[in-house]
Amino acid sequence: MTALMIQGTGSNVGKSMLVAGLCRAARRRGLSVAPFKPQNMSNNAAVTADGGEIGRAQALQALACGLAPHTDMNPVLLKPETDVGAQVVVQGRRVATVKARDYARLKPDLLASVLESFRRLSAAHDLVIVEGAGSPAEVNLRQGDIANMGFAQAADVPVILCGDIDRGGVIAQIVGTQAVMEAVDNARVAGFLINKFRGDPSLFDDGYALIEQRTGWRGYGVAPWFPQAWKLPAEDALDIGAPARAEGLHVVCLRLSRIANFDDMDPLAQEEGVRLTMLAPGGALPGDTDVVILPGSKSTRGDLAFLRAQGWDLDIAAHVRRGGHVLGICGGFQMLGQWVDDPEGIEGPAGRDAGLGLLQVGTVMTGDKRLTEVRAVHAASGTGFDGYEIHIGRSEGADRARPFALVDGTPEGAVSADGRVAGSYLHGMFRDDAFRAAWLAGFGVQASGRYGETVEATLDALADHLGAHLDVAGLLAAAR
User: Fold this and answer.
1) 479 alpha carbon, distance to own chain's centre
2) Locate the CobB/CobQ-like glutamine amidotransferase domain: which residues (predicted)?
């Protein structure tokens, strides 16, 4: 087994991007390489070829490796449903919903599944590049850890520690991490690197040398800010970097509190004829909005209440009265209906809430979860496209007689009688160039992008970027 683990001094220091770039760099060196993240916390999930789900970041990393996403690449996925509880997905399947304080009791059992998945990947590939979660400096969570040093020790994997200079205090980030960790974990660290530097990296030479001196760890380089990162699928809704455009079809996506699979928006952000706004909580719907998108949600009824608390229900109703369009995807589709019923309390307390009333459908939450890739045909344009379903619940009602799409000839989704409000359970539709072009053409906009080719080119550019600034050969040699 040959593996290397990238851990960070904190969340959002760029671990996912580094792993993707290193995976592409290793692949271009002729290695069979696979990504791995023992534990991820994200509501942005991807459906896998083996019929499960993993974090979207690991799906991107799989693409960098030239592989289809597999549940072994992210054996434990935590999907937050409330501020204190999350759904636990193990090797692609939901096993429980637990409160944060109870999760620690599950971790000893989860380690066996994590190591099982890791060993399968290791046996099938020359190299596995592992991504940590959060930070090993969270030593209060060290006992029973399966995400950082606990996994690294159990699997005997060397660690590279990544610091984020963009947020400031990177010397303290790295030296401080060493200071709080136990000696046995510090011995596991093979070196460090600095990420997200803006400007002339030589200006940090003294700081870099100080870190080497204080820690005794080898430095593997300083990676400048990668400006094309916004072209890759975002794992955090705050990272969707739509360019600021003054003109174009104004598409506004509501940033719900439990927003899920928000990378649905990424392809639209890259379209030159689209002005995408990710509307933050507290903001009013802009008066020049052309299309409102209600995205997926991990807690449909919870986000319905959140949406109403922002006053967005009134904004959307006024938008529709003015002739505007609305598209609901997955949980957003459920919200557009007359009611959402969760009799078994699957997503939270049992109960039934009124929907936004813009589609003549109602939704009942059920225990079975649909996870599948699909080939569909857009009913309005006749365009075929690829997508995927990842949801619980069934939606039925009169507007289902006007489907959004057909999947194997079966009606899917719903459209209002005037055609201006539509809902669908299908994620990933905008990644399909043909569908995106047909959908935009309905608003008089000509599509300009080829999304898949852009992502592939950006992964190559990321590998080139890391190769120019980091000791990639040394990093790969550190694997064992």
Assistant:
1) 26
2) 251-434
